[in-house]
Each structure stands twice: as structure tokens, then as C-alpha cells.
Amino acid sequence: MRRREALYGVLFALPYLLGLVLWTGGPVIASAVLSFFSYDMITPRFLGFGNYIFAFTADDLFWSSLGRSFYFVLLSVPTGVFGSLLLAWLLDQKIGGFKLLRALFYVPSLTPVVAVAVLWSWLLHPQIGPVNLAIRALFHVPGPNWLGHPDWAVPSLVIMGLWAGLGSNRMLIFLAGLQGVPTELYEAAQIDGAGTWGRFTHVTLPMISPTIFFNLILAIIGALQVFASAYVATGGGPAHATWFFSLHIYQNAFKYFRMGYASALAWLFLLVILFFTWIQFQMQGRWVYYAGEVK
Amino acid sequence: MLTVLAVLLAALFVLPFLWTVTTSLKRASEIYAVPPTLFPAEPQWRNFSLLFTRVPFLRWIYNSLIITITNVIGITLSALLVSYSFSRFRWPGRDIVFMICLGTMMLPGEVTFIPTYILFAKLKWVDTWRPLMVPAWFGGGPFNIFLLRQFFLSLPRELDEAALIDGANPFTILWEILVPLCKPAITTVVVINFIAVWNDFFGPLIFLNSIEKYTISLGTQWFAGTIGNLTSFGEPTTQLVMAATLIATTPCVVLFAAAQRYFVEGIVTTGLKGAGV
Fold first, then answer.
1. Domain A68-240 fold
2. CB B97 to CB A115 under 8 A?
3. Which of B73, B152, B227 is best to mutate for the A interface (most A CBs within 10 A)?
4. With DSSP H G I counted as helix, E B as strand and the rest as coil, what are the percentages for chain B, rounded to 5?
5. Which one of A150, A215, B88, B275 has the minimum C-beta count within 10 Å?
């Protein structure tokens, strides 16, 4: 009976087992191997660590694109995660029209990335876009050149991402986490004299810290990989201002067909992500509170 | 007071859509008018039909539909099979494989798409839809497997056992007993994945070269050009691009509105479990 169960189990799991080899395991190993070669889709040439050395020393866009991706993470993750949290908190406050409000917050995240980028390229148009028109009308100064200015390009992408991301799945997950906080804790805090802010910092935040942790990790990994909005809205410009690491990999792979080099870049990228995730896991002991934990 | 704040925020989120709608109904000259107008003088409904003559938009809609529907069917069917295995059967290595499955959620696409692209290039599948449709049939990915597995785990084993006593085999148990009970979870999987595939940009970008094979996402981007180059067709086309944007977004909004309850539940379940709450 056990044998039959195991047989059926493997049988049903076969699509995934095959897929794991074909689309995950295989490619991961293949790209690792590829990173030690130069490959232009026709002839491979063994380079040893050549690609990695080139990345660190001779590729003038390597460090700068990595830095730009970090910069984007710095600007977009804290604002994005805590913005979603605040939206969720707002929805949790027993206000009227909850379902409709939640839907309205959520709808921007359903928009195709391309549509978001095209839409915001228009909204942020320096002369005729509504944003600058409003700025001119309210503050009597010409607004910045948003996507066309090297200093404003990344913040523009951040704003775009916030519009599309604040009310998204992240917010839904926060909302569910908030709804799971036992009300007795709030009542106890109120008896002890805590006001709204006090209740938020001493009850809400600790109790949802696992959810914050989870969303933070996903947000960082996601922000590091941002590609479509930059590609569509700015094409990596102006003057490489939005040339994120993902764009760098894309260009090396699909414009120059330097498959080996792009694979090396991809692996370096994976290491960066693993490193960030590892750091987060190390630090979670300091600030994440798991209610069910036994110390 | 908080309600006011919430309504203001909701307005902020909705305003860009409003702008999309009004811009799509303007004349080209109105868009660049100074001082700018909020509403068009007369709604140019013909912008929408112009869109279809200017680019093969109908073709793109058709392409997107085919690709998306094939994907969704593939993902749903294979994820059902795989999560059935993870939740109802014991087999050697099952838990390790499941952990690996979850682990791959953190894997950036960059490490896999280059060899995958090379594989498809060698198979001569580039500039076809096969690379976009085939991988979906291999389990559907960790998110869907996790979601359905959680759901299966909540269905009592007694149902399986009763059917076994009646002589049913595992296939029958799955299709005739468990799946009909899974409608909420299946709805969630279908809706979430429809939206994800419909909106996908990167896949079509790297695999499709011929314009008539483009999906809506890729086509709209190609049509719009990059910032500062909205006149790629020799005249302002912003109003047409806005019309395209509206059409591209509508199915997702409609699906979401129809399946909101299941959709939210599905995301929340996966998210909370993932957060360890």
C-alpha cells in the first residue's frame, strides 16, 4: 500500500518534478557553467573567471547600475512597505465603504506595467503633464523635468511604482495581518492609558512584525529586479540615470548576445539577493516578534 | 475624519485613470493645448477605432487571449495535480522537494531566463508563442502549488477514504470529489494568473520579434515608443496610446471586480502562511 501511495504521489507530482529540472534546476546549473565562458549563441570560449574580473574592473556600467538598483531600493522599499501598511491600517479603522475603498486602492496594481509606464510618462510630462500643471497652478514654479532629468528620473519611477504598488497584494496581506491582532491587547493598552499612537507602536507593530518582515523581503527582492517600468518609461536614461542592474543584464544578453557575461552578471545578482535576504534573517531576532514562540 | 482621508487617497489612485479616459477621447491638438483642458471639447470616440487601424491591435488582443487562456488552463490543471500529490500522498523526498519549491520563489528570473532562452533558440521556438505557453504546464509555479496545497489540506481525508472504500482510484477521487469542492481556490488561481499573464511584458519582449505576434503589453509599448518620442508615427498618438491602455486594463479590472472575494482570500492565505503567522 505504501509503495502504491508513493508511486501515485510521484506520478501526480511529475509535471512539477520535470519542470524543476527543465525550467529551474537545469537553467540554474547551466547559467553557472555559462558564466565561465564567452558565448555568443554560436561558439563558446572558455574564460575561467574572465567574466567576473571584467565585471569588477572593466565594465564601466557594472558598479554604477548596481548602485542605481540599490538607490531605487532605498527610495522605494521603506516608502512602499510602510505606505501599504498605513493604507491597510486606514482600511482597518471601521470606516464606511470598506470594500469599495479597498478595490479602488487595489485597481492600480492590476494595470499592466507598460500601461502604468506610458500613463505616468504622460502625467509627468514637463510641459503638458497634469502633475506639473498642478504644481505651476498651486506653487507658481515650473515643475521638474521628472523622467527627463537625471536627478529626478529615479524618483519619478519610484512615484510610479508607489501608485501601482501601495494598494496591491502587499496591502491586502497587511490588512489580514492587522485583522488578526487580538482586540484584547488593544483594550488592555487603552486601560493602561495608551493613545492611538501608543497602541500603534506598542501593540500593532510588534504583533504584525512577522508580516512586515515578510513584505520587506519580498519588496527588496522585487525592487532589485525592477525592469519593465524603467525600460518602457525611460529606456534606462536619461544618461543612464535609470540604468538598473536588471537592464544591464538584459542589454548584455539580448542586445549584445554576450550570454556568458550576462550569466555571470545574473549570478552576481543572485548572490546580492541572497546576501540581503540572509542579513534580514539574521536581524529578525532583534525586531520580529512571533506571538506563538516559546523562548 | 479618517473616512475623508481615505476618500482623498482613493481619489488620488483613481485620478490617473480618469486622465487616461479623458485623454483618450481628445483630439491630438487638444492634448498639447495651452492652457490645457480637463475634458475634451467633443468626445472623439473614433480614437478607439483609429487605434485598430493604426496598429494591429485586434490581432494583439487575440494573441494575448490565446496565450493567457492556454497558460491559465495549463497552470490550473498541472497545479491541481501537483498540489494533490503534495497534500494527499507520502513519497520519499516529498518534503525536501516542497521546500525547494518554496525556495525558488526567491530565485530571481535572471539566473534562469538566459539558459531558457538559449534552449528555446536551439529548438527554434523563438518568435513563436511556445516559450510563453509551454512552461505553464509543468506545475504552474510555487505560488499556485502552495495555494492549492493549503486548500487541499483543509479538505477532510474522510472524503478520500470513503471513495477509496467504494473502489475509486486516485484520479477519480481528485476529479470527481476534491476538485468540485475547490471552486474558490480554483477561481483564485484562474483570476490571479490570468491577470499576471495578460500583463506580462518581459516574456513577450525576449521571445517575440514579429509585430503581428505581439501581445497587448508588448504592442502598446512598441506603439508608444519611449519618453519624448510619442510621435513615433509622425504625429501625436498619445490619445491612441491612452485608448490602448484603457483596453488593456479593462479585462483585469472586470475579473477582479467579479472575483474580488476569492482573489483577496487567496492572496491573504498564501501571504499569511508565508509570513509564518
1. MetI-like fold (1.10.3720)
2. no
3. B227
4. 75, 0, 25
5. A150
